[in-house]
Amino acid sequence: MKAEEWLKPILTERSPLYPVPTGIEPRLDQIAGIKAVIFDVYGTLVVSGSGDVGSIDHTDRSSVIRRACDRLNISESVDGPISWQDLRSAIDQMNAERKSSNCVSPEIDVISVWRELLDQKGLQFSTPAISQVVRLATYFEAWANPTWPMPAACDAVHQLSSRGFCLGIVSNAQIFTNLLVEDLEFSKKNGTSVFQSDLSFFSNRFRHSKPGPRLFDALSNALRRRNILPQEAVYVGNDMLNDVWAAKQIGMKTAWFVGDRRSARERSDDSRCAKLSPDLVITSLPQLLECLTLK
Ligand SMILES: [Mg+2]
Q1: How far is the CA of 42 from the centre of ligand 1 (A)?
Q2: Cβ contacts of 70 within 8 Å, gap of 6 or more
């Protein structure tokens, strides 16, 4: 089995998940002179149970871990079950080790976390066992944080691309996130992505996450190399802190996506969001086509 196959459950274990209206009114304005539209993934391009990669709430998912271990016949090879608390502690510890003034918002590598957990439980590693680690992480993510393409996401990104906007991604992500993005682009032509690779940044590759500055600083540099000013780019995301606040730090225009109650995050308890106002509030992605113009 190829390494890519190990990640396939992130797509094959899905079932339809439709957005739940938020009741928040859209605020649509005309914004001219836009050259680039950059997207968040979880809770924006895909419906996501948590609105982010991984599970950010505190629901105990020990039963999901057990189910994933059973699926891969790992349960009998390890010394005792892996609990939700074991997983949370491993993630917290890995983040704490990396947190510093230069890394205010660390990102884990989820494969390393699971590898460490299985190591602690006495699983001996060989090449096949590494495939088991990746598959275990993938099954767990697929079941604990189910996703489904956001309605009209594929059509909206293709239409924005055909109108001449440069498209990119800034996402908190793990190794399987790219499959969710590629899946959105099933109608891509000539195998070329509508998302520009030089404008796409995934937190697991940087080991820095939003709302820390690293990913948006990298985007800012990439926009500059294309002679695009930050105010000529719009960032679209579901989270007022991770997306709207973080993108505003580099001077981008922002669209707060509030199309799904599961993931729309107002962050009213965070002082950084107290006086924050996005340029647009949208309840569906095609509204971007009504609001944004190149000239
Ligand atoms: Mg999101």
Answers
A1: 4
A2: none
